[in-house]
Amino acid sequence: MKNMKDRLIQPDYAFNYKKNEFCVEGIPLTELMDRYGSPLYVYSGKAVRESYARLKKSLKGMPVQICYAVKANSNLSILKLIRNLGAGCDLVSHGEWRRAEQAGVPRGLRVLSGVAKTAEELDQLLQLPNAGVGSIHVESVMEFELIQLLANYRKKPVTVAFRYNPDVDAKTHEKISTGRRKDKFGLTREEILDLSVNFAQDEYVRIAGISIHIGSQILSLKPYEQAFRILSNLCDEVEAHLGRPLDYIDLGGGIGVPYRPGEESLSLSEYAALVKKYFHSSAKGGRKMKKILLEPGRSLMANAGVLISEVVYSKVRENHRTLILDSGMNDLMRPALYDAYHGIVALHQSRDVKMAKWDVVGGICESSDYFARDRPLQVEGLPGERVAILSAGAYGFSMSNSYNTRPQVAEVLVDQGKTKLIRRRQTFEDLISPELEMK
Fold first, then answer.
1. Domain containing residue 289
2. Mean pLDDT score of the chain
3. Domain finish residue from 296, 327, 350
């Protein structure tokens, strides 16, 4: 029998039925909708803690620092919760750096990634000790040259790592694959070696590590093993040019989560064994890294959140049913953007309501505004019925927008018996406040 605690949590870990009511940590979601309105994002602190604990436990005994990928869910309350668990953060913009600052994440536990760091942003950071981060992950030759120029001009030391593109196909969705040569991310081996030779002794820029991230929602160990082997070999070459060991490597994130019924994440212990084999072993082919960074985002947050929504209308035609919700693709983009699957359940179960297949859509004026097609649901299609869209804690609200002039929804965190509104619902006045009217 499989040890399910060796896997990431299932969608029903903190969200499940109690006496026919769909609940979060025992609290009926209908109560939260009555209090805070619809649509509504709801997160479980218990689920975040459990996801973090499982990942951390699997890596016990290795010098691992978890740096949460803020882009997955950047709410300040979520950042503070994960900070209190001991995590740092992976940032991909100056705005995310400011969020980390606001949330009190220690600067030394931050890494700054992103392919388009501007000269203005970098210059602002370089006026802080070590640029206000543990390290900057360099994505291009031109970016490195800019950092080197600014650091020497300001006479300010900064730590950097090279983001390596290992040309590994993670066999995930085309739009979330990041480690192939044709993808926009990272540097090639040749570029990294050239920079290592030319800037090994730079007075202000310390080349400290190498970072990779080959993709997202990975459910197989094979692409990780391929990438780790290539990365380990590159570390040997870079260290030979630097004349010293690297301070750390960053293995990125990408561990896939279960979205569909019966789907499983990869074995965390087997993943940890791979990390140990290549980066915490004296055996042939292995190495002893002083520090290993990981960047989980989805794996901590996806199944810690749901989007709850209300039926506005339905259309029942010959052999075809359409359920129209008050939420839309502006609230949860993943199905429209990636054809992503999210489970959907009724908030109230009743023996009197038969299961039927529905297309589940939102109110956005776009043909791609579908949450599901031909999905079996226990609803009648009556206005006011309520449903939960599962596994929405990662890349849900953080990718949402106000398309069609729809104010963004509220967010609620349930944690240790307490319910907290962590983002109020946007008003129309909030939405238009930055706009300047012509006179």
1. 113-296
2. 93
3. 296
Same domain, 280 and 137: yes
Number of domains in the chain: 2
Q: Is the pLDDT reported for residue 170 higher than 70? A: no
> Is residue 177 very low, low, confident or very high in pLDDT (cuts 50, 70, 90)?
very low
- Told to judge if 365 belongs to the known catalytic residues of this protein, a careful annotator would answer yes
Could you tell me which residues are beta bridge partners of residue 112?
91, 136
Whole-number Å distance between alpha carbons of 78 and 82: 6
CATH number at residue 212: 3.20.20.10
Residue 169 pLDDT grade (very low, low, confident, very high; cuts 50, 70, 90): low
Q: For residue 432, what are the contacts with CB-CB under 8 A and spacing of at least 6?
A: none
With 90 as the cut, is the pLDDT of residue 167 above it?
Answer: no
Which among 300, 275, 250, 271 has a CA at the least distance from the CA of 71? 300
Q: Is residue 382 part of a domain?
A: yes
| pLDDT, mean of residues 143-149 | 98
What CATH number should be reported for the domain holding residue 2?
2.40.37.10
Q: Residue 210 in contact with residue 234, Cβ under 8 Å?
A: yes
CA-wise closest residue to 167 among 223, 116, 128: 223
Instruction: Report the C-alpha gap between 214 and 176 in whole angstroms.
Output: 9
Tell me, yes or no, whether 315 and 284 share the same domain.
Answer: no
| Residue given tokens 């109020």 in the structure block | 424
The DSSP annotation for 253-270 comes to --B----STT--PPPHHH
Report the pLDDT averaged over residues 429-436.
94
Among 7-21, 134-148, 184-198, the range scoring the smallest mean pLDDT is 184-198
- CB-count exposure of residue 106 (10 Å: 0-12, 13-18, 19+): exposed
40: Cβ–Cβ under 8 A, 6 or more apart, which residues?
32, 33, 307, 308, 309, 409, 410, 411, 412
H or E segment to which residue 138 belongs = strand 135-138
Active-site pick, 23, 67, 89, 365: 365
Residues in CB range of 369: below 8 A, 6 or more apart: 328, 329, 336, 361, 362, 363
Q: Is the pLDDT of residue 127 over 70?
A: yes
> 181 pLDDT band (50/70/90 cuts)?
low
228 lies in the same domain as 319: no
Q: What is the mean pLDDT of residues 339-362?
A: 96
Helices (H), ranges, 14-75: 29-36, 45-58
Whether 232 and 326 share a structural domain = no
Domain end, chosen from 270, 296, 322, is at 296
Same domain, 332 and 400: yes
Decide which of 320 and 327 is more confident.
327
| Residue 287: predicted pLDDT | 85
